[in-house]
């Protein structure tokens, strides 16, 4: 047996033991919320309706696997009846605050289908991604991979258009629009009330129509002015109420209602559209809508003196 001894680890100076390097610790960045949760929606709401309303405030995300918008409508326990709740997922977190500011406590529909109820919009619970994001697919064909890449590129191109500067501009524009809408929240625009041919054939038609509209609207609430825009092919009139609530009620009652055989369109004035009227500047913002054009009054006086008045044919209100 050899008397040689193996060197001890302490004696090995040629290859000193290497220290195990620890990975640098990084603090995970908090995940930004990009979704809103909406409640009190109409029970017959559709994904297309929600897309139309909420896409005004940002780019709505799409499922890369299906290409469908990431909008989920929640149902009751039976799995069929809608609850009136929805989840909308945006691409950018900035869209969340914008949608909440602009849509919370507003009516989703205003018009014939309006119920008068307001929707509630709030940032969604962050746990939504666990449920909503598609599960990874283990195997995909080369064609499927190409399609996913193309969809991803398409969405990246869309996203590039919604930069921070544009979002700020959109937000500012929406605030201005809201200010205008509040300013003219007592003004209702009615369309298809008359035809230009009707006004040309009977110079008293404008007066009769204004009186009929005023009487119909005063059944809802006090009216301060009624303006007929006799140069508009769509038969446009504006009605200003004393109260904002009466204006909204007018829209609910009149939108879709028939007047002299024509289906009316009713909406609150947005403060942006300008309507043409003979003898005065265009615009639906005139406070003195009771004043008739001098030219029309002159013609009306001549008509009375001629004794050619025929029996009046008043407009008739009725529902569909």
Q: Could you walk me through the main structural features you see in this protein, from its secondary elements to its overall organization?
A:
The protein has 320 residues and is an alpha+beta fold. The chain folds into two domains: 35-129 and 143-178, Alpha-Beta Plaits (2-Layer Sandwich); 187-318, Alpha-Beta Plaits, CATH 3.30.70. 33% of the residues lie in helices and 15% in strands. The chain contains nine helices and eleven strands. The chain has helices at residues 47-54, 94-103, 128-132, 142-161, 164-183, 196-201, 205-218, 244-254, 294-306, and strands at residues 35-39, 71-75, 82-89, 120-123, 187-191, 223-228, 237-241, 258-259, 262-263, 265-268, 317-318. It has a four-stranded antiparallel β-sheet with strand order 2-3-1-4, covered by helices on one side. Strands 6-7-5-10 form a four-stranded antiparallel β-sheet, covered by helices on one side. Strand 2 (71-75) and strand 3 (82-89) form a beta hairpin. The longest helix has 20 residues, at 142-161. The N and C termini lie far apart (116 Å). The model is unreliable at 129-135, 281-293 and 308-316 (pLDDT under 50). This is RRM domain-containing protein. Residues 138-172 form a coiled coil.
């Amino acid at each position: 047996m050899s008397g040689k001894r193996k060197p001890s680890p302490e004696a090995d100076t040629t290859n000193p033991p290497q220290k195990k390097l620890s990975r640098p610790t990084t603090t995970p960045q908090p995940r930004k919320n990009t979704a809103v949760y909406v409640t009190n929606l109409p029970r017959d709401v559709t994904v297309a309706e929600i897309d139309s309303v909420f896409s005004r405030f940002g780019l709505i995300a799409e499922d890369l696997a299906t290409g469908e918008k990431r909008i989920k409508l929640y149902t009751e326990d039976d799995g069929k009846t809608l609850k009136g709740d929805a989840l909308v997922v945006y691409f950018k977190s900035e869209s969340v605050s914008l949608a909440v500011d602009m849509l919370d406590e507003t009516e989703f529909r205003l018009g014939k289908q309006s119920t008068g109820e307001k929707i509630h919009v709030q940032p969604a619970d962050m746990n939504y991604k666990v449920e909503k994001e598609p599960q990874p697919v283990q195997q995909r064909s080369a064609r499927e991979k190409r399609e996913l890449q193309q969809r991803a590129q398409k969405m990246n191109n869309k996203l590039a258009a919604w930069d921070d500067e544009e979002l700020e501009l959109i937000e500012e524009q929406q605030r201005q629009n809201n200010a205008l809408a509040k300013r003219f929240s007592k003004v209702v625009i009615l369309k298809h009330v008359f035809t230009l041919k009707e006004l040309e054939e009977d110079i008293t038609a404008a007066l009769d129509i204004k009186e009929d509209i005023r009487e119909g609207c005063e059944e809802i609430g006090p009216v301060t002015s009624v303006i007929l825009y006799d140069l508009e092919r769509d038969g446009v009139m504006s009605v200003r109420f004393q109260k904002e609530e009466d204006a909204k009620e007018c829209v609910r009652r009149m939108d879709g209602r028939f007047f002299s055989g024509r289906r009316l369109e009713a909406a609150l004035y947005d403060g942006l559209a300008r309507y043409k009227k003979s003898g005065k500047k265009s615009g639906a913002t005139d406070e003195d809508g009771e004043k008739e054009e001098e030219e029309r009054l002159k013609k009306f006086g001549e008509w009375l003196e001629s004794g050619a008045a025929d029996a009046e044919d008043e407009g008739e209100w009725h529902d569909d």
